[in-house]
Amino acid sequence: MRAILIAGPTASGKSSLGLALAQKHHGTIINADSMQVYRDLRILSARPSMDEESLVPHLLQGHVDGAVNYSVGQWLQDFETAFSEVLKLGRLPIVVGGTGMYFKALTQGLSEIPAISDEVRARVRHEGEGVDPADLHARLARLDPVMAARLRPTDPQRILRALEVFTQTGRSLASFQAQKRPPMLDLGACQAMFLSPAREVLAQNINQRFDAMVAHGALAEVTQLAGRGLDDKLPVMRALGVPQFMAHLRGEIDLPAAIERAKADTRAYARRQFTFARHQLPGFVPFSP
Q1: What superfamily would CATH give domain 3-111+181-197+273-287?
Q2: CATH number for the segment(s) 118-177
């Protein structure tokens, strides 16, 4: 077995299972969660605690600054280095996370998309600053209707990415997505699972975990993040709980309302994770925690 891959919705118990397997099988945890890479969000991204990190090695956790627009391609590059290090040490790689796109790219390959120049990225981001995501989506639909049809109007991060590619190349992002590099891992040589708890249990876990995050300083974490004055379209600013707490800090809603909105958005995100796995991760075996 080359690696163990543990995907699943948020609050499904992935980290606990990964830690238990790593302790039992001389393993190293490699993070596959797009928010746990950011050092700004230890609490809200539910990164393993320092005590848990001391039990077994954890890689690709909190190694990226929030000002970085970290991509799937960058994660794959970091993963390749981490994976090689784990194998050299004779340990078992255990890849744990809730970002389906990371697992899809790892096991199915990633599209060859040209690098975006700093000038183009800055121009597109400047033009999109303060613009409603629905209006950004309408702009993309005029330039690249094929890609616009694939993206939700409420997803500014991916809309801006598609606009950057079109501005840089004059081609639809969809045309590049049709050309893929070979996958880094052969799924047949791995044990791949998707944790699938009962929906009512998962909803309860989400609510309880968010309450625990609040008790452990999630609002203070977002207050510190707000003080950095980062672009609100950066991935770190879209993390579950961040927009809701930001609205509270601006005086738009009270704290209980922010907490309830964050819980509702987290439950909705978990449903999308189930849908993604069902359609995009066919080789991952459903597993009841």
Answers
A1: P-loop containing nucleotide triphosphate hydrolases (3.40.50.300)
A2: 1.10.20.140
Digit-coded pLDDT (tens) for 54-106 = 999 999 999 999 999 999 999 999 999 999 999 999 999 999 999 999 999 99
**Where do the CATH 3.40.50.300 domains begin and end in the chain?**
3-111+181-197+273-287
Q: Percent of the chain having pLDDT more than 70?
A: 100
Q: State the alpha helices, DSSP H only, in the chain.
A: 14-24, 50-55, 72-88, 100-108, 118-128, 133-143, 145-150, 156-169, 173-177, 199-215, 218-226, 242-249, 255-280
Q: Token digits for 184?
A: 């880094």
Tokens of residue 62, six digits: 């909190």
CATH of domain 199-271: 1.10.287.890
Express each pLDDT in 276-287 by its tens digit.
999 999 999 998
